[in-house]
Amino acid sequence: MRIKDFMNKFDDYMAAISFAEAGEFDTARQIARKKTKILVICSGSEEDNYAIKYAVSLAKRVQGVVKILVNGGSSKNLIEQFGGGLFYEILSFSDFLEVARYIEESDLIIIADEKMFDEIKLRNIPLIFVQPNKTLLGG
Length: 139
Hints:
Layout: H1 3-21, H2 25-32, E1 37-42, H3 48-62, E2 65-71, H4 77-80, E3 88-93, H5 96-105, E4 108-111, H6 114-120, E5 127-129
Parallel strand pairs: 1-2, 1-4, 2-3, 4-5
């Protein structure tokens, strides 16, 4: 993917997200033109909940599809605690080579682990790094 195509795609997603946050869901859907494939990569840390919560909220706004990759076993209760009515898939992985295939199929990646950030940041796919705000009460 050329950098120009990547930037145009990223701009479209950011515009769609902005319209969705403002309550203009039809406009956001028209901009997105397809179901956004959101990939959440979980490493087993406590911060994974923040990444999943962000992904679920975003997917509901833009009518997206969420794939959650969990290091080790399956954890369906992670997404069920944030609400239903969403198409999602939970998959497990044991090493980063397995993750690479899902990264290429995704439109947006959401992570909460700093170690994963170094592995993914060089790819031409929009990446959101989610961390709790530890200076605020409640995170």
